[in-house]
Amino acid sequence: MRARSRVVAGLVSVFMALALTFVGAGSAAADQSKSLSGKSPDGGASFSGTLTWTGRGSFKADVTLKDAKCDGNPVYFYFIINKGWTSEWQGKRRDNNEGCGKTITWKGISGSDSNGIYGPTLRVCTDIRPGLDSCKDYGNDNPYFP
């Protein structure tokens, strides 16, 4: 009888440990990454990279920007941070003035807002001189919002 109660107690301990392991694993949300790519409407700017959501109100990104045309026009991008409804703010503009076929990579770009971020839009542009810039927006929804 004693051996049987020790076996039962051992099995109960194992199941409790497994239950705690699974409960603990589910309590923290894992980062979610997504590939980024696109180009400006005139084809002068192209980009690629990775956007990683680190929570409801934060993300980080690595972006490579290429001057894809030999037209003498520099290229740039920036993030527009959409906080939901009509509230947004604009991130730092990042320029590539290196010329035809050259790329620049920015690592560790980040954005955060304590009230949450609905989604960052990456706006990529060719700086047309003179004239209106050729820009296109690429939206990225936050899987943690709301």
Mean pLDDT: 82
Poorly predicted regions: 4-28
Radius of gyration: 24 Å
Order of helices and strands: HEEEEEEEEE
By DSSP (H or I, 4+ residues per run), the number of helices equals 1
What is the level-2 CATH architecture name of the largest domain? Sandwich
Largest sheet: 5 strands, antiparallel
* Envelope shape: elongated
Compute the number of strand runs: 9
The chain-level structural class is alpha+beta
The CATH top-level class label of the largest domain: Mainly Beta
Keywords: Signal
Protein name: Conserved putative secreted protein
Description:
The chain has 1 helix and 9 strands, in the order αβββββββββ. With 146 residues, it is of the alpha+beta class. 18% of the residues lie in helices and 46% in strands. It has one helix at 2-27; strands at residues 32-39, 45-55, 58-67, 75-82, 88-90, 94-96, 103-112, 119-126, 134-139. The strands form 2 sheets. Strands 4, 5, 6, 8 and 9 form a 5-stranded antiparallel β-sheet that branches. Residues 4-28 have low confidence and may be disordered. It starts with a helix and ends in a 7-residue tail after the last strand. It folds into 2 domains: 1-29; 32-139, Immunoglobulin-like, CATH 2.60.40. This is Conserved putative secreted protein. Residues 1-19 form the signal peptide. Keywords: Signal.
